[in-house]
Amino acid sequence: MTPVWIAVLAAGAASYGLRVLPLLLGDRVRLSPRAQTGLRHAGMGAITGLLVLGTVTVLRPSSGLPIVPVLVALGAAVTSALLRRSMLVTVLAGITAYGGALLVIALGAGGP
């Protein structure tokens, strides 16, 4: 079995486990309101992070991932999600932060 299929099966098993876990636990586990709020916005933060990483990979496939701008963009997106902003605002925050970090790096390296 190739590593790709192992990753696909592991992701499928993890996804299944996360979906069935609330059904199995039912009313046995109570989360605090703060935990519920954080989990409510976790999906948005994950989707935004994947969008940023996907955009970087598509636009700069040969240079690899510039880690600092990606981390800045993810931080901005997570902050926006925690502040309960809409998906559009969260995505725009990630894109703007990524562009700003790239600009700062380019200006620090002697210009674009």
TrEMBL record:
InterPro entries for this protein? Brnchd-chn_aa_trnsp_AzlD
Q: Which UniProt keyword terms apply here? A: Membrane, Transmembrane, Transmembrane helix
Pfam families xref list? AzlD
Q: Which residues cross the membrane?
A: 6-26, 38-59, 65-83, 88-109
The protein's name is AzlD domain-containing protein
The source organism is Intrasporangium calvum
